[in-house]
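Suppose you are handed only these lines of text.
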Amino acid sequence: MKFSDQLEQRFADMVPHYPTKRSVLVPMLLYIQDELGAITDEAIHEIAMRVELSDLEVRNVISYYSMLRTHPIGKYNLQVCTNVSCLLRGGEEILEHCKKKLGVGNKKTTPDGMFHVEEVECIGACSWAPALMMNYDFHENLTVEKVDALIESLKKS
Ligand code: FES
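From them, the structure of the protein bound to FE2/S2 (inorganic) cluster can be written out as follows.
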């Protein structure tokens, strides 16, 4: 696979800023995912060669991070935290509400391709629990009403 001009530029810009090539792996995987919608087999092979890792090592990194994926999902990815702080402040109820409102199970996408719901571990917003990430945006101190407002605003966008 050949990287797009934009990915080539990002790779070239980042490599000199890190002590080893492999340090650019995670940010490059995010850029690839944003551009392609998912991290394809071809992209895994390409980035593995560039950062001098095996395809398997790259796959292991992808499987570790919940924000990285090898298959396309909905346009809006609702990653709901149910780890300890969020659990104690209603995180499970928020997750159940998202699933019920959108009519999907965990790690599933709505038929129209708009929303994907996923239960995740701590997203680093414990002080503002319960929290979720919608793509790269944090939504904190959640209530069912706030979730409804978020989903409705996304439907209109
Ligand atoms: S436990 Fe939910 S953000 Fe940390």
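What can we learn from it? The first strand starts at residue 76 and ends at 81. The CA atoms of residues 74 and 114 lie 5 Å apart.
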